[in-house]
Design a protein that fits this description.
By secondary structure, the protein is an alpha/beta fold. It has a single domain (7-30, 40-178), classed as 3-Layer(aba) Sandwich (Rossmann fold), CATH 3.40.50.2020. It is built from four helices and nine strands, in the order βαβαβββαββββα. It has helices at 14-31, 48-57, 107-117, 175-178; strands at 7-12, 38-44, 62-71, 81-85, 95-103, 123-132, 143-148, 153-154, 170-173. The chain has a six-stranded mixed sheet, with helices on both faces. The chain has a three-stranded antiparallel sheet with strand order 1-9-8. The protein binds 1-O-pyrophosphono-5-O-phosphono-alpha-D-ribofuranose. The site of 1-O-pyrophosphono-5-O-phosphono-alpha-D-ribofuranose has 14 residues, from strand 5 and helix 3.
């Protein structure tokens, strides 16, 4: 059940998100137990809420940084992505974990993965809260929260026209809202 009138249904509840964040943090703690230079890279804007939860759930020592991207024409097939804000420091020889709120068509994560891999980090992995069920999208996701249907979703960092980002759950937006 959802309490917001613009929402069709809840896809991932607050409790499920919080439990999954704890599980992902445990997996990441184990995987990077020996690493002393882990860097979490959050992709603005959507990932800021997931990043805040994940970083506080981790026991392993790590630093955080952010990149901001924008995509030209979400509705076009090209999916061209542009950097608005880059990392502060080189990542050569660092263990880098990319943190994203969602993989939709996969353009953003594919672009970032190529870009950061070329900067020669010691390792490069990805952690994504939700991924849409789309058979055509091949992107490397190492730590995944949930797979969700291919519908318009909001909440937990995800927006529609800059709204709904701060909802603590992930929900499907009513078509009547985005078709207005
Ligand atoms: C969203 C989301 C991802 C990207 C995923 O960002 O935060 O970064 O789209 O889509 P893709 O897999 O099709 O590339 P958006 O461009 O909406 O910007 P925002 O995070 O600032 O809202």
């Amino acid at each position: 059940m959802t309490s917001h009138p613009d929402l069709e249904r809840t896809l991932v509840t607050t409790d499920a998100i919080q439990a999954r964040v704890a599980e992902l943090a445990q997996q990441i703690d184990q995987a990077y137990a020996g690493a002393d230079n882990l860097l979490l890279v959050g992709i603005l804007r959507g990932a800021f809420i997931f990043m805040a939860d994940l970083t506080r759930a981790l026991a392993v020592t790590h630093a955080v940084d952010f990149m901001a991207l924008t995509s030209y024409g979400k509705s076009t097939a090209s999916g061209e992505v542009r950097i608005v804000m880059d990392l502060r420091e080189p990542i050569e020889n660092r263990h880098v974990l990319l943190v994203e709120d969602i993989v939709d068509r996969g353009h953003t994560l594919n672009y970032l993965h190529r870009l950061l891999r070329d900067r020669q980090p010691a390792s490069l992995r990805t952690c994504v809260m939700v991924r849409k069920e789309r058979p055509d999208v091949g992107v490397p996701v190492d730590y995944l929260g949930f797979t969700i249907p291919d519908v318009w979703v909001v909440g937990y960092g995800l927006d529609y026209a800059d709204r709904y980002r701060t909802l603590p759950y992930i929900a499907e937006l009513k078509a009547s809202v985005y078709r207005k």
